[in-house]
Specification:
One of its GO terms (molecular function) is DNA binding. By secondary structure, the protein is α+β, with helices and mostly antiparallel strands. The chain has 9 helices and 11 strands. The chain has a 4-stranded antiparallel beta sheet with strand order 1-8-3-6. Strands 2-7-4-5 form a 4-stranded antiparallel beta sheet. The protein has a 3-stranded antiparallel beta sheet with strand order 9-11-10.
């Protein structure tokens, strides 16, 4: 977690300069094309990171969990936001100005290295998602996305449950809602996963991991 890894003095200064904002489900935290005048650190809730084409086709790039850095690229290079970020549920985030971030990076080399590490991790995750969406097997794509959601969610309660709609999951995996529904029904018959009260419950993690390796 970025803030927890910063030196105490740097963390205290950032938190003193930050403002806490709260967001309702579906509300935009960041919008593509907006100026990168600040950086956000998600404190509670989850947020969808996505881009939408001129034709209206949305591609989900990932899901941000608490302590994720949002808007870092635009904040650091001064360019426009490169993606939209919407709250998947009620959320809150610390908002830190670009001026304060740049001042910290100039004065604190250790903090600068931590931010670079976070950027590298984000780039690696983006590359992995591009690889996932190039898989020929829809089942492998869906399994991989479910495993990523479980891993990113953390905590015992999230270990075997994913609370997302089938339409949303289809956008994330690059599949239609119908294909997602068909695959989930097949997995239920095989004892791999089932839909229960709006949640996808993983019944057999090992089997799901094996499916994710299929091409």
């Amino acid at each position: 977690m970025v803030l927890e890894r910063l030196q105490q003095a740097a963390r205290a200064r950032l938190e003193a300069q930050a403002s806490l904002r709260r967001f309702l489900r579906g509300e935009a935290l960041l919008l593509r094309g907006d100026p990168g005048t600040s950086l956000m650190i998600l404190k509670s809730g989850r947020a969808e990171i996505s881009v939408t084409s001129a034709g209206g086709q949305k591609t989900i790039l990932g899901v941000a969990e608490p302590e994720a850095i949002l808007g870092d690229i635009a904040c650091l290079d001064g360019g426009p936001r490169s993606a939209d970020v919407f709250a998947l549920e009620e959320a809150s985030a610390l908002v830190i100005s670009r001026q304060e971030i740049l001042r910290m990076l100039r004065e604190d080399s250790e903090s600068a290295l931590l931010v670079i590490e976070a950027l590298c991790e984000k780039a690696r995750n983006a590359s992995e998602m591009l690889e996932v969406k190039s898989l020929g097997s829809g089942a492998a794509r869906l399994a991989t996305c479910l495993l990523r959601l479980i891993e990113d969610g953390g905590g015992a309660a999230a270990r075997d449950r994913v609370k997302v709609s089938q339409s949303w999951l289809g956008n994330y995996a690059g599949l239609t809602r119908e294909n997602v529904n068909r695959q989930l029904r097949a997995w239920q018959s095989d004892g791999v996963a089932q839909v229960e009260r709006g949640e996808i419950v993983i019944l057999n993690h090992d089997a799901l991991a094996d499916i994710a390796l299929e091409h």
